[in-house]
Specification:
By secondary structure, this protein is of the alpha/beta class. It is built from 4 helices and 5 strands; from the N terminus they run βαββαβαβα. The structure holds flavin mononucleotide.
């Protein structure tokens, strides 16, 4: 099974979650603005995450989501961090659905202040889909 982890993070919180998922999956967590962010061939499970900024998601993530398609991604699993709101999860899920991608209904979310102690929970969550 091929697994990919993509994220966008301004200050490192969402990146940390992405890195724990990647560690569980044995792949690299790649920022959506990195040169190698494009998905190669078919990805069975795409973990994709981003934080909420002023009730929206970053443009880098918005643009990346537009490049994805249902014929390349088997299923997407969404994660996010923020101070309080889970709204980025819905924004990301909606963008994926619009691209014809099947999205797992269960999501992974942490408040920014809880990210430091989240490793075990992240690994447990990720392993359900790997
Ligand atoms: C400019 C800015 C706007 C933000 N707006 C919100 C918001 O509307 N709601 C919220 O819950 N958190 C908001 N946050 C908090 C971030 O979502 C939170 O710090 C997140 O963990 C940052 O993730 P990152 O380190 O991966 O960039 C905002 C943070 C910044 C810097």
């Amino acid at each position: 099974m091929s697994v990919a982890v993509r994220y966008y993070s301004r200050s490192g919180k969402t990146r940390k979650v992405a890195e724990y998922i990647a560690e569980a999956a044995g792949v690299n967590a790649i920022s959506v603005d990195a040169k190698d962010a494009a998905l190669s061939d078919k990805t069975d499970v795409l973990f994709i995450g981003g934080a909420l900024y002023a009730y929206g998601i970053d443009d880098n993530l918005k643009q990346y989501l537009k490049t994805l398609s249902g014929d390349k991604v088997g299923k997407a699993v969404v994660f996010s961090t923020s101070w309080l709101s889970r709204h980025a999860l819905d924004l990301i899920k909606n963008a994926l659905t619009q691209k014809g991608i099947q999205v797992e209904s269960d999501t992974l979310y942490f408040k920014s202040k809880a990210v430091d102690g989240c490793r075990d929970e992240v690994v447990k969550f990720a392993k359900k889909y790997i």
